Amino acid sequence: MSDHVRLVLPGPVEVRKEILEAQTAWMIGHRQPAFATLFASLQEKLKQVFFTQNRVIVSGSSGTGLWEGASRNCIRDDKRVLHLVGGAFSERWAQISQANGKQVDVIEVDWGNAYTPEMVADALKKQSYDAVCAVHNETSTGVTNPIKEIGEVIRQYEDTLFLVDSVSGILGAELRTDDWGIDVVLTSSQKAFALPPGIAFAAVSDRVLERAKQIPHRGYYFDFIELDKSLQKNNTPSTPPISLMYAADRQLTDVLNEGMENRWQRHLQMRQITHEWAIEHGFGLFAQDGYRSPTVTTVDNRQKQVDVNDMAKFMINEKQYAIDKGYGKIKGETFRIAHMGDMTVDTLKDVLTGLSEYLTKGA
Ligand SMILES: Cc1ncc(COP(=O)(O)O)c(C=O)c1O
Q: Could you give the domains of the chain?
């Protein structure tokens, strides 16, 4: 038996062998012409998958770093930011803005619910904000928020930037940066991109750079102005994760060959299969109907009360799949089935067959 445990986690996700191997290309220096070629190639593909004409910053960090960067570059110290919160990750981003000394207001919905454009419209009528921060795909609850509709509301306010975390969404769930009026879309590599962890991307609008100029203390590592200056020369201010960039470049070639619409469709199909499996086995679906994520299903285990630790142990030991046991305050009450990244319908079916076997064993 191989010792390869296949990841069915909502990040890090399974990475295909070809992508892992792309990292083994000979090292180059980031001030050599070969690096500029790699950077330019990656940049051009990133723009396509983000559906943007804006620059896409490449960061040697996980997504958390770009949360901090977005908050620091977009929110002036004497202005306020509105965070839309409805799960563990949206909550954390609000904490990060606070940790950076920003004045934070929060709209909070119950975990499992989506935020609505009406909530945002009400808040913007009462108070002016430098930015509204939203999570596209709340990985803890399996909710995909209505970013397009929220963007339509925010666009009516000239000084309000729209910042979106699509760490577990983009490339699996539809997201169109420019058409939806988004100023920052940030994401990490280890989720819907199906890359190893350690590299993060953010599409950044000109409006953001204009705002950043008005903020004297943007920090250093995630200073979008400096990142943009280097990016214009197909470079980065500090040493980038070159091996991961090789992997990203290769992965995006494959993603574009699959086609973004096809990729979204594959995820919707996997969502459907997962929902049917959950209902058939007596589980609920935690996320609000109409807002259920194409990349991760949060299964409601409150009625059925399956021992998720035991189930996960079975899946590793008997099936060599690592599965999730739920996140944060809903751990155990829920568990998540990730259908993210390069997962295929066949693999998902194999995972679900394994889970069914666990559930019926001894019955
Ligand atoms: C929606 C969301 N945002 C942000 C993060 C944090 O990203 P990272 O772990 O890449 O720092 C995560 C991680 O799971 C996430 O799911």
A: 6-13+260-360 (3.90.1150.10), 17-257 (3.40.640.10)
